[in-house]
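Dataset card, provenance and construction

Sequences and ligand SMILES were collected as paired inputs. For each pair, a complete structure of the chain with the small molecule in place was predicted and serialized as structure tokens. The example below shows a pair involving adenosine-5'-triphosphate. Curators did not alter the output after generation; any descriptive sentences attached to a record were derived from the structure itself.
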Amino acid sequence: MNTVIELTELTKTYGSRRGLTGLSLRVNRGEVFGYLGPNGAGKSTTIRLMLDLIRPTSGTVRVLGCDPRADAVELHRRIGYLAGDFVVDGRQKAGECLTFLGNLRGGVPTARITELADRLELDLSARIKSLSKGNRQKVGLVQAFMHHPELLILDEPTSGLDPLVQQTFLEMVAEAKAAGQTVFMSSHIMSEVEAVADRVAIIREGRLVATDTVAALRARSFLQVRIDFAAPVAAEHFHALPGVTDLSVDGKTLTCAVDGSPDALIKATARHTVTGLRADTQDLEELFHAYYTGEHPTDDSTDGASTGRAA
Ligand SMILES: Nc1ncnc2c1ncn2[C@@H]1O[C@H](COP(=O)(O)OP(=O)(O)OP(=O)(O)O)[C@@H](O)[C@H]1O
């Protein structure tokens, strides 16, 4: 079985409020899958549906070949889950809490808990209520990883972690992948998942707007172009060119964005004397911002393998 998560036409409404609308998505075994979207986009809703913590209004969910509702006990054993609002009994010491959670999963060797805690610099003897937000998040990470689950579902896993610990976390994800585990992680920051994710999905307002590899998304980003000419040029020579948007001409300087091939712009430019040229690929974070705000067109016109609905 190569598909680990399969969501089909999943819709969740909270009364009159939108949670998710017609979301279809497939995650393959061994993938690290980044699930991105701004606050309120529906990331936690999707994850809660996968774990049967809430029930869909319509649509289906399959996780590890199971129905999250009918096979809840089996699934929870095979999954490592970090909730976005991870909460445990604050009176317990971190080590006691982790041993307890490990026993619920059939027992996890103390050495494994200690190894993870050492890597994350988590003090196992501290009472949970005395820990900072970031240190509590480390307890959440240890409990998700400690039993080597087939599938890790992590909701905003780096929330509250300092950059060094974030780095350690990314190493743990890379190791999980190398061991054949599948990782589904949500985030609202692209740079965080960019380094480890094989593919990313972006959701906005409860709908999937793109699914692709990081490299392919980057290839689809705009080119920001600035051209300096020897003499003033007229904007109308440039602005109907294919792929050219946001055109502005200020005397001898032209700036624009180019979506796709810059061929037409280059040919139009070659009719003039050029004194300077600069072209920068749009920063991935900017590309995501464009998806978030709806400035970037969604990908309905292209096939599901590169965009989407079940990739
Ligand atoms: N229990 C609930 N009752 C009513 N509305 C809810 C409930 N849970 C979520 N929502 C709404 O569903 C939408 C999606 O919320 P969700 O928590 O899934 O987003 P998210 O992408 O995880 O956001 P964040 O990054 O802020 O955690 C939001 O508009 C939210 O207000």
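Derived descriptions for this record:
The first strand starts at residue 3 and ends at 14.
Residues 14, 17, 19, 37, 39-45, 84, 188 surround adenosine-5'-triphosphate (CB under 6 Å).
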